[in-house]
Amino acid sequence: MSKPLKLAVVGGRRGASFNHALARLKESVTFTAVCDLSEAMLASWRTEHPDIQTFTSYDDLLEKADCDAVFICTPMLLHAGQSVKALEAGKHVLSEVVAAATLDECWQLVETVERTGRAYMLAENFCYMRPNMMVLNMVQGGVFGDVVYTEGAYIHDCRALSFTPNNELTWRGELRRQFNGNLYPTHSLGPVSQWLGINRRDRLVSTATWTTPAVAAAAYVRERLGPDHPGAANGFWSPGDSATTVIQTERGAVIVLRVDWASPRPHNMTHYVVQGTSGAYLSGRHDKEDPLVWIDGQSPGRSYDGKAQWESLWSYADRYEHPQWRELGADATLSGHGGGDFFVLKAFCDAVQAGATPPIDVYDAVTWSAIVPLSIESVAKDNAPVAVPDFARRRKTR
Ligand SMILES: NC(=O)c1ccc[n+]([C@@H]2O[C@H](COP(=O)([O-])OP(=O)(O)OC[C@H]3O[C@@H](n4cnc5c(N)ncnc54)[C@H](O)[C@@H]3O)[C@@H](O)[C@H]2O)c1
């Protein structure tokens, strides 16, 4: 057994939510250092991890911390620059979503990972949630036939997270004030891309995005901060409440994504659909509802005679549970995001220890993240389709 990977965390708030996963992965990984701008945040880390090195400067951390790898958990627009710096310093990188926010950053990340030979992984934990992995196992086993259509949505009322306690904009608020597009696509596109074999047997070719007006965002500010606050005006927020992105793949499959950080509704963050030639999947509408499947030849009825009936995905767990969930589900469930945090950390550590390419590599990371700049471009061009760069083409020839 090799020694645990020494991991430094940058951005203490999100990093701390991995403490539970860490406790279950003690033999694989240890947090040796943390960097945050906030002294209070560092103090709370010292309480939780008495031996940890703490830094307020990222450059100091890269120079002085005793670590093999860096986990980037800072606000979104910092990820690509901090990842590149860490790779240049010889560290492996696990990056929170999204990986990069411009096409230039995407290409720079690819080039830096290829040149340095360090491991890079996007921490897209939604790929590892139990139903998403079970569906992956089913798609890979051909249960749904040829998958031609998918949907993914991330719908999370983050309006309160757009303001600090002093009513200034947080990074989420700033992002929504400045950019009009699909600003957080990877929770929806990640699992869907894995189901479709994107960057393996298919690739994204073109995409267009539409956004609604920012009415719920402005209404929230009027109600909570008063009508005179600048954010109460509809024109203050750049993107609308809801962004819908359509993507066509080279094989002709269609992906529909939605991200919505503002609309009010009961908590249910995700929505996924798979349509294949011999079955369909529909994620649960709320936390208490089972995800549903209909599988031709296994589920009751045929669809063309109107007698097909949805069944709970869980009624197929004995047959189709993903092997990783079968083995480690009990450990994973207790950690954040439906076990996704556990598996993402484990996958990264396993890959680094084995000298292998992580399962969500730099090509997947930038392909999924590129929807941010491409959607901004599409909205600016009156929703015109724009081409998706083939970031993974170099992987094919290497
Ligand atoms: N995958 C998921 O499910 C998930 C969930 C939550 C957050 N996130 C991601 O985690 C990241 C952080 O989100 P958050 O909600 O924790 O944000 P946050 O604003 O609550 O926390 C950001 C932290 O980073 C620190 N920070 C800011 N700039 C820094 C710098 N230059 N160097 C070091 N530290 C710095 C801040 O002091 C703060 O403690 C985002 O990219 C977000 O997308 C992912």
Kindly describe this structure.
The chain has 398 residues and is an alpha/beta fold. It folds into two domains: 5-124, NAD(P)-binding Rossmann-like Domain (Rossmann fold), CATH 3.40.50; 127-323 and 362-397, Dihydrodipicolinate Reductase, domain 2 (2-Layer Sandwich), CATH 3.30.360. The protein is built from 16 helices and 15 strands. The strands form two sheets. A nine-stranded mixed β-sheet has the order 14-13-12-11-7-10-9-8-15. A six-stranded parallel β-sheet has the order 3-2-1-4-5-6, sandwiched between helices. The mean pLDDT is 95. Nicotinamide-adenine-dinucleotide binds next to helix 1.
Write the layout of secondary structure elements.
Blueprint lengths: L4 E6 L1 H5 L2 H6 L4 E7 L3 H10 L4 E3 L2 H7 L4 E4 L6 H10 L3 E4 L7 H14 L3 E3 L7 H11 L6 E9 L15 H8 L7 H11 L7 E8 L3 H11 L16 E8 L4 E7 L9 E7 L2 E4 L9 E4 L15 E2 L4 H4 L2 H11 L6 H15 L7 H8 L1 H10 L5 E2 L5 H5 L1
Parallel strand pairs: 1-2, 1-4, 2-3, 4-5, 5-6, 7-10
Antiparallel strand pairs: 7-11, 8-9, 8-15, 9-10, 11-12, 12-13, 13-14
Helix pairs in contact: 5-6, 6-14, 7-9, 9-14
Bound molecules: nicotinamide-adenine-dinucleotide.
The site of nicotinamide-adenine-dinucleotide has 22 residues, from helix 1.
Q: Tell me the distance between the termini.
A: 31 Å
Looking at CATH, the homologous superfamily of the largest domain is Dihydrodipicolinate Reductase, domain 2
Tally of structural domains: 2
Detail the poorly predicted runs. Answer: none
Oligomeric state of shown chains: single chain
Helix count, DSSP H or I runs of 4 or more residues: 16
Reported for the largest beta sheet, the result is: 9 strands, mixed
Beta-strand content bin = 15-25%
Determine and state the CATH class of the largest domain.
Answer: Alpha Beta
Class by SSE composition:
alpha/beta
Question: What integer value in Å does the Rg equal?
Answer: 21 Å
CATH architecture of the largest domain: 2-Layer Sandwich
> How are the strands of the biggest sheet laid out side by side?
14-13-12-11-7-10-9-8-15
Q: Bound compounds, please?
A: nicotinamide-adenine-dinucleotide
Mean pLDDT score? 95
